[in-house]
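Quick start: load a record and inspect it. Here is Transcriptional regulator, NifA subfamily, Fis Family:
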Amino acid sequence: MRHSIEGRSLSVINQVAKTMSRTLSFKESVEEVLKTLYSFWDVKHSYVALYDKQSRLLRIVGAFGLTEEEIERGLFKKGEGIVGKVYKSGVPTVLSDLSIASYLNRTGLRNRLEGDETFIAVPIRVGEEIIGVLAIFKRFEKESVEEGLQLALILGTMLGMMYKLSQRVDEERREWEEEKRMLTEALSERYNLEGIIGRSTAMRNIMELVKKVAPTDITVLITGESGTGKSLLAKVIHFLSRRKDKPFVTINCSAIPETLLEAELFGYEKGAFTGAYTSKKGKFELADGGTVFLDEIGDMPLSLQPKLLRVIQDKEVEKLGGERTVKVDVRVIAATNRDLGQLVKNGLFREDLYYRLNVFPLHIPPLRERREDIPLLIDHFLRVLSARYNKKVSISPRAVELMMEYPWYGNVRELENLLERLVILKEGTITEKDLPSYFWVELQKDKPRSIPELVQNTEREEILKALQMTGYVKSRAAKLLGLTLRQLDYRIKKYGIEIKKI
Ligand SMILES: Nc1ncnc2c1ncn2[C@@H]1O[C@H](COP(=O)(O)OP(=O)(O)O)[C@@H](O)[C@H]1O
Ligand SMILES: [Mg+2]
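Running the structure step on this input writes:
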C-alpha cells in the first residue's frame, strides 16, 4: 500500500521535472505543475501566489480549479493570513480545519469546498529569497498529510528553480532584442554630415574635424549647452566610422541612479547581489565592436570613475561580483554641457579621467553665437516637419528675422520644438503674429530702455534704501545720497514716498 503511494508522489515529481526541462514561461510552468497535481494527486484546487514588489502584495499568478473572480480576490499582504505568513516567515503550514479565524478565505474558495479538505501552504524560494507561496487544497484519503507536505515542499523548490530559469530566458531574450534593436536602428537611420545643418565658421570647423576624427578610434569629448546637437554629432561620428554596422550604445549618466549605473555600465555576474539570479552584460559589453556614447559625463559619480577609466585605458570591463575581467573593443564618445575642467578643480571629476576623455575636444557654440545658422535650420526643420505632418508650411521673412534675434537658451532643440508646434497648428505661412508671448518678452529684454525712466526708477529705489537705513532721519539720508535736504524733500514729494514715523 505504502509503496504505491510513494509511487504516485514520485510520478508527480517525475512529471514536473519533465516540465522543467522544457523552456516555458514561469506562468506556463506553474500551470503545468498544478495540472500535474490534479491528474496525479487528485488536488482539485491549488494556486501559486508571487510577491509583487510594486504593489507590495502577493498575487495569484497561476491557479487550478479557481474561478477568475477567486483568482482576482486572492491578494495578500506580507504577513497577512496563512499565505502572507508563510511568505513572511518561510514556515510551511498545514491546516486541516479551514473554519478557524486565521484562514482568511480571501479567494472565497472555501464556500465551494466539500469541507474536509486540508490546506497546505509552502514557500517558494529562489536561493535565500522567498518569492511566493504554493497553496494546495486536498482531501487526504489514501495518502498521509505528512507525505502531502513533503511533496508540496519539493514542488516549492522546483517552482523556485523554474522561476530562476524563466528569468534567465527572459533576460537573454531582452538582451537579444536590445542588440537587434540597436543594429536595426543603425541600419534604418542615416546619419551623415549632410544631416548637420550650419554654415557658420564654427559649424564648418566642427564638420572638418569630424571628418578627420570619425574614421579613427580616438575618444571624442563633445561639449556645448543643452540642445546644441551633441547627441546628433556623436551619432554622425559613429556612422562615419568603420564601426557603423556595430552597435551605438548611449548611456545617459545623469538619468540612471548611481546604484544602477554601475550594473548598467559594467554588467554583473550571477549572485553579485540579492536579486541577481542571472548574470547580465553591461553596456560596454553590448557595444562590443561599436561605440559607447557617454552622455552627460559630467554627472558620472566619482565612485564609478576609476572603473570607467580602466575601460577606456585597458579596454577591460570588471563585472560586478565577477572574478575575471572581460575584454571589450569599444570606441568612447562623451558629451557634457558642464565645464569638466571646473569640475576637476572642484574635486568633482577625476583629473586622470578628464585627460583621457579630453583627447579630442569638440565644442559646439550656443545657437545665439552663430545666428547665421538659424535661417538654414528653419528651412531644414520646415521641410522635415512638413513631410512628417503631411502639410506645406512656410515662414515670413519678418518671422525669420525675429527668430534670428531671439536668444534660444534651449538652442537647436528649442527651435525645432517651436517649429514643430507651429507646423501642427498652422496652415500656410508662419508670421510674427504666430510667435509665442514669451518670445516677445525675451526680445523686449534686449531692447535699449528709456534713460529718464531708468534714472527715475533707480533714484526712487536709492532714496527708499537710504531712508530705511537711517530710520527715516531725512538729514542723514540726504547726506548718504549726496543731496541737500531741500533736494531730497523735493524728490520725496515727487515720488510720493511715505515717511514712516518710528
Ligand atoms: N546642426 C544641426 N543640424 C540639424 N539638426 C540639429 C543640429 N543641431 C541639433 N539638431 C537637432 O536638435 C535636436 C537637439 O539636438 P541634440 O543632439 O539632442 O542636442 P544635445 O545632445 O546637445 O542636447 C535634435 O533633434 C537634433 O537632431
Ligand atoms: Mg543629448
